[in-house]
Fold this sequence. Notes:
The protein is an alpha+beta fold and 202 residues long. The protein has 5 helices and 8 strands. Helices cover 34% and strands 26% of the residues. It has an 8-stranded mixed beta sheet. Helix 1 (31-42) packs antiparallel against helix 5 and helix 3 (135-147) crosses helix 4 (154-165). The longest helix is centred in the last third of the chain and has 25 residues, at 176-200. This is Plasmid pRiA4b ORF-3 family protein. Residues 5-176 form the Plasmid pRiA4b Orf3-like domain. It comes from Qipengyuania qiaonensis. Pfam families: PRiA4_ORF3.
Amino acid sequence: MTDRIARLHIALADTDPLIWRRVEVPVDASLKMLHDVIQAAMGWLDYHLWEFEADDRRYGMLDPDWPDDRLFAAKNTKLKALLERDIRQFFYTYDMGDNWEHIVTLEAVEEAAPGAKYPRYVEGEYRAPPEDCGGTPGFEAFLDAIADPKHPEHDDATEWHLGCYGKAFDPNAIDERDAKLRIDSIAKRRAAGKASKARKSR
């Protein structure tokens, strides 16, 4: 049976120019897998709490020490469950402190390409902010500082990013190789899981 694939456009809200990615994800992927894909596509490092919001429902990682009756388990909810409810746009928030809100829009549902492994990275524009930079206002201040050698925070901002990431921040350069490798790793785990399940069902 051929996989059905959702092509998703992921945009980081309140960014100008718009920071966005396009990915292709199996409709039977869990929202936890979609979280992993978004992390990889955007270049986030999965340091913080996160959740999806769709049609007034929230999905994330359940914590037995902090029960929340209004939060559904992302690992138990498949993307197709949202699509079957005719949800074509929903939200993903990463890091409740910096509050990075992503707008996830369904562009198409189609048959998987023969021989392709999913999920997969397609394309995008502009580099996502560094972790822990203070949300949109902090990111804008960071960009101003690194762009102007005469800015009073230029040296500190540059050294901070170098210390955390080992390279200078270029807002125009996406590390697409890293995104593809990380998403390919997810696709390989998914393929291995499907193969194992098929063997057990024989």
